[in-house]
């Protein structure tokens, strides 16, 4: 019995010694410690689709930068956690990334609520965070110094759509939106724009985020008979409500579905199929847009993710987050987070998006990127505004359901 | 006497803990205190009085919102704000309890499940007051040690309340309700009143720690604070430790939190699945929890509150 | 409020109510016979919906036929849960069965999330509507309601006239007397739980053609079926049918006036009012 214990002890001591040797030798052999970037992003939950695509953008950038020898000679590594689309989980995980995993940098999460929550942590520890997944103004209205936006604020996002509708003679608007941060801010933006452009807003109704039955809301909208019906929410509710618009035979002259219609899946058989036609929305980026480097970027994406035909603007936004960080680090020449922060605040360059990357140095809010308007036509997204990048004509009014197919 | 000395030593160690530990471990202890308070509060109404609440997170969320609103609107300090929030949660418990505790068994359980959902909807829809689904963001918190002590003291208070219930007349009355309410009623116990008092007590502490939690996490939204996961964990931690005992929730919360802490970040969904499975397994095979083993081996003096 | 709109809301409510009734019937049967409130009943609906989704996308099978697969399958799932878990604690105090079915519910939901993620799924089966003047009858809802009503009636006649149905009712009346009459009570438990789950599964198939399918969809349905059975009286079969219709119409009409956000609270408000003023339900007897 005792011999066993002794032998066990010897073994343990030996192992510990060996481990010590390896640990001591390790730093001497490795060229440079990899740069670890912490990411807590939605891999599950209601915005997981966009979260995963944003992460793919990060990974594409990672491959590109590592192929060229890394950032200032350090290979880039990600430490990824799943925030379950939940703001508090996100905040907890970022705290963990900074305090326990001791990462060097933080990349932003997806969705405005999660950005809102996690930025309180990054601000506290002075980690610059470039948020690739928030187009709301709210996270950027608290005077935070270390938070930057990539997407343009959505207040004016529907300017193109509304201008076109005005041209075609639409006069009234009804809005139904999910009581979530992004749809609510979109609705507010439309109300404001309507005043400027001379539309009459008949009603603004909201529903709790988990709603699946929209009958009563749509019946009310039907009773008001608006020219334009705007449905703002995330993809699942956007799809569900679009289906019910047809079922209840609600016939606005034009239907705008955001964020729902902006996904390629919306126009596919799994989504609304043929019923997607005539629906409009806005977009910050599309694979077929003619911006510098875009074609190569899209090709690279499809080379890497062959099995997946999924691709939308979030990949590009994710990639851009990496690109901004890379530019800032190279400019500063070190990983000093305060200097990186200042560099990002003053940065200006043309990216994959229309317009250019430029933030308000005080609030970190995006000022340079531009929104475009699209409409689903014959199962394809067609850019209809602004005129200089348009790939088709805006069709108005939408035929009534009973006259279709 | 020796026991008492041990207790003092443990308390002293907990007081010195934040001095020697980094922020990550302080946070961990702080959250363990929080779960002890929550599991203990659940124990009062469900463990002692036998009325299973499946939506106890409602008081936690309510407290979190009351606190956050006081801080953002009036600049109140978090400590008085949280205590007030506890009172607010107790006030909410009065009508809820008065209505539902008259009804036996499952009515109450499902009612609480639904109440939690309803409060989440209310919080997300009345956005002029609550900030809606956007939630409320509080100023950045630079110092968490005061919160550590606040949580710790709350956990201690909950523990003391439970110890009192184990041996007091009031506690015995709750037990009689749990074991046979009709009989207790017939024998002249004002069951409705006692249940109501227990329910109010079990609402107060979640309200308070909800406030602390809001301050700690600096951002709250309806989905987070009215999360059913909180309710599940209260149930699980309490039955894991042992229902109707003072030490049960303390042991259950600490053990489960530590297990989860080292697994959840890597298996985010696994821990919910595991929580559900554990609840089933515990009820089937060890309905008396860890304390059941301790009493079963004669390691501690058996209390009357413990169900045999 | 225009009369057409009101009529439309009543129609939508009745159509919806039929599905509520089918789901609630299972819940109320289990309670009546076993004195167990099955918190995981909503998950039977969710599983039924996924069966329907899977059959549709793998084999292009119409959801109407999917009921024939989903109901027996869910009977098996329910029966397994009863035999393996619930049976062990059915004689215990009520709190244990509550906690156990709560645990089962959490398990099933999270297995669902693990297998299928939280993405919303939909079945593009039947879209559009039938029209009658200015009134609209959404095809998926009409089909679902008719089927739900047929299944509910089937179960009703089964309970009323078949030998097994009579045995189930006898057990609900008194376990001891039923046992004395030679009814094997444990077997009745097993069958009741399975049957209730099958009804939940069938309701799930019907829900799958109307609504988005996702692992957490069961909870809101559970809450509604609970309101339904409290309305109709716990353990009361006809009461559940009536309760379903009342809830459906109340929700349909109520949310017209309360706007979208109020809609979710209606079911809850009804539950509250019934609990306060008539805790035995509309059809229930006075004694508890």
Question: How would you describe what is shown here?
Answer:
- The complex is a heterotrimer of chains A (405), B (308) and C (288).
- Chain A contains 11 helices and 14 strands.
- Chain A is α/β, with parallel strands linked by helices and 405 residues long.
- Chain A has a 5-stranded parallel sheet with strand order 2-1-3-4-5, with helices on both faces. Chain A has a 4-stranded parallel sheet with strand order 7-6-8-9, with helices on both faces.
- The model of chain A has no long low-confidence stretch (mean pLDDT 86).
- With 308 residues, chain B is mainly α.
- Helix content of chain B is 77%, strand content 1%.
- Chain B has 15 helices and 2 strands.
- Chain B has a two-stranded antiparallel sheet with strand order 1-2.
- Chain B is globular and about 50 Å long.
- The relative contact order of chain B is 0.17.
- Chain C is built from 10 helices and 2 strands; from the N terminus they run H-H-H-H-E-E-H-H-H-H-H-H.
- Chain C has helices at 3-34, 41-59, 63-89, 94-116, 139-161, 163-173, 175-180, 185-208, 218-232, 237-277; strands at residues 129-132, 135-138.
- In chain C, helix 1 (3-34) runs antiparallel to helix 8 (185-208) and helix 1 packs across helix 9.
- The interface between B and C is large, with 39 and 40 residues.
In short:
With 405 residues, chain A is α/β, with parallel strands linked by helices. Chain A is built from eleven helices and 14 strands.
């Amino acid at each position: 019995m005792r011999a066993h214990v002794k032998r066990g002890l010897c073994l343990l001591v030996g192992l510990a010694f060996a481990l010590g040797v390896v640990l001591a030798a390790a730093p001497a052999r490795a060229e440079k410690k990899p740069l670890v970037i912490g990411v807590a992003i939605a891999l599950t939950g209601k915005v997981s689709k966009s979260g995963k695509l944003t992460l793919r953008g990060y990974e594409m950038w990672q491959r590109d930068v590592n192929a060229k020898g890394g950032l200032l000679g350090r290979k880039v590594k990600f430490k990824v956690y799943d925030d379950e689309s939940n703001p508090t989980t996100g905040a907890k995980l970022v705290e963990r990334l900074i305090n326990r995993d001791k990462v060097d940098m933080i990349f932003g999460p997806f969705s405005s609520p999660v950005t809102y929550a996690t930025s309180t942590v990054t601000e506290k520890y002075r980690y610059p965070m470039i948020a690739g997944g928030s187009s709301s103004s709210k996270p950027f209205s608290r005077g935070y110094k270390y938070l930057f936006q990539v997407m343009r604020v959505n207040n004016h996002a529907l300017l193109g759509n509304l201008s076109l509708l005005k041209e075609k003679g639409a006069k009234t608007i009804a809005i139904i939106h999910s009581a979530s941060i992004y749809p609510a801010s979109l609705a507010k933006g439309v109300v404001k724009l309507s005043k400027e452009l001379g539309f009459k807003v008949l009603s603004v109704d909201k529903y709790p985020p988990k709603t699946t039955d929209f009958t009563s809301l749509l019946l009310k909208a039907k009773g008001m008979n608006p020219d334009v019906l705007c449905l703002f929410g995330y993809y699942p509710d956007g799809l569900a409500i679009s289906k019910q618009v047809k079922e209840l035979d609600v016939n606005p002259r034009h239907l705008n579905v955001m964020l729902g219609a902006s996904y390629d899946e919306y126009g596919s058989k799994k989504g609304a199929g043929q019923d997607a036609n005539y629906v409009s929305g806005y977009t910050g980026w599309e694979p077929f847009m003619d911006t510098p480097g875009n074609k190569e970027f899209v090709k690279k994406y499809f080379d890497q993710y062959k099995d997946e035909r999924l691709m939308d603007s979030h990949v590009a936004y994710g990639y851009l987050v990496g690109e901004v960080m890379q530019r800032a680090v190279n400019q500063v020449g070190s990983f000093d987070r305060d200097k990186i922060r200042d560099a990002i605040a003053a940065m200006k360059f043309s990216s994959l998006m229309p317009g250019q990357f430029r933030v308000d140095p005080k609030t970190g809010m995006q000022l340079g990127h531009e929104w475009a308007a699209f409409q689903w036509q014959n199962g394809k997204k067609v850019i209809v505004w602004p005129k200089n990048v348009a790939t088709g004509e805006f069709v108005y009014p939408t035929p009534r359901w009973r006259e279709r197919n | 006497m020796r026991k008492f000395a041990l207790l003092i030593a443990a308390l002293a160690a907990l007081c010195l803990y934040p001095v020697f530990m980094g922020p990550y471990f302080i946070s961990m202890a702080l959250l363990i205190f929080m779960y002890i308070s929550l599991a203990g509060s659940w124990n009062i109404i469900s463990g002692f009085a036998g009325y299973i609440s499946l939506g106890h997170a409602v008081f936690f969320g309510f407290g979190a919102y009351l606190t956050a609103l006081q801080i953002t609107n009036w600049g109140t300090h978090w400590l008085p704000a949280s205590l007030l929030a506890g009172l607010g949660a107790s006030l909410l418990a009065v009508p809820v309890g008065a209505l539902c505790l008259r009804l036996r068994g499952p009515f109450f359980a499902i009612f609480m499940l639904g109440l939690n959902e309803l409060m989440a909807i209310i919080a997300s829809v009345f956005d002029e007051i609550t900030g809606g689904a956007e939630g409320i963001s509080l100023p950045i918190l630079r110092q968490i040690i005061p919160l550590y002590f606040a949580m710790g003291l709350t956990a201690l208070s909950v523990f003391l309340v439970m110890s009192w219930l184990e041996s007091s007349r009031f506690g015995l009355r709750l037990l009689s309700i749990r074991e046979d309410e009709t009989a207790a009623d017939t024998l002249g116990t004002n069951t409705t009143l006692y249940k109501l008092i227990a329910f109010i007590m079990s609402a107060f502490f979640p309200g308070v720690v909800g406030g602390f939690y809001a301050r700690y996490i600096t951002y709250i939204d309806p989905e987070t604070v009215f999360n059913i996961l909180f309710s599940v964990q209260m149930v699980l931690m309490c039955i894991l430790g042992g229902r109707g005992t003072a030490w049960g929730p303390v042991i259950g919360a600490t053990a489960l939190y530590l297990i989860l802490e080292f697994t959840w970040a890597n298996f985010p969904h696994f821990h919910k699945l595991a929580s559900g499975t554990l609840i089933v397994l515990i009820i089937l095979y060890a309905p008396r929890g860890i304390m059941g083993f301790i009493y079963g081996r004669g390691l501690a003096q058996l209390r009357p509150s413990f169900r045999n | 409020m225009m009369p057409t709109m009101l009529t439309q809301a009543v129609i939508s409510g009745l159509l919806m109510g039929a599905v509520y009734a089918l789901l609630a019937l299972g819940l109320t049967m289990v309670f009546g016979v076993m004195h167990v409130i099955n918190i995981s009943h909503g998950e039977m609906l969710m599983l039924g919906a996924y069966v329907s989704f899977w059959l549709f996308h793998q084999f292009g099978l119409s959801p109407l036929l999917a009921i024939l697969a989903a109901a027996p399958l869910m009977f098996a799932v329910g029966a397994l849960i009863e035999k393996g878990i619930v049976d062990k604690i059915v004689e215990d105090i009520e709190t244990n069965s509550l906690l156990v079915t709560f645990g089962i519910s959490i398990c099933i939901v999270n297995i669902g999330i693990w297998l299928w993620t939280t993405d919303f799924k939909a079945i593009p089966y039947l879209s559009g509507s039938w029209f009658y003047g200015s009134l609209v009858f959404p095809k998926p809802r009409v089909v679902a309601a008719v089927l739900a009503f047929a299944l509910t009636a089937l179960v009703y006649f089964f309970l009323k006239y078949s030998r097994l149905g009579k045995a189930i009712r006898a057990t609900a009346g008194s376990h001891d007397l039923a046992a004395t009459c030679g009814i094997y009570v444990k077997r009745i438990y097993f069958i009741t739980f399975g049957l209730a789950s099958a009804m939940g599964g069938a309701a799930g198939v019907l829900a799958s053609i109307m609504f988005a399918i996702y692992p957490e969809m069961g909870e809101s349905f559970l809450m509604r079926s609970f309101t339904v059975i409290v309305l109709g009286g716990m353990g009361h079969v006809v009461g559940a049918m009536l309760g379903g219709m009342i809830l459906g119409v109340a929700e349909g009409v109520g949310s017209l006036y309360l706007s979208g956000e109020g809609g979710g609270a209606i079911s809850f408000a009804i539950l509250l009012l019934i609990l306060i003023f008539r805790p035995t339900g509309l059809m229930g007897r006075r004694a508890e």
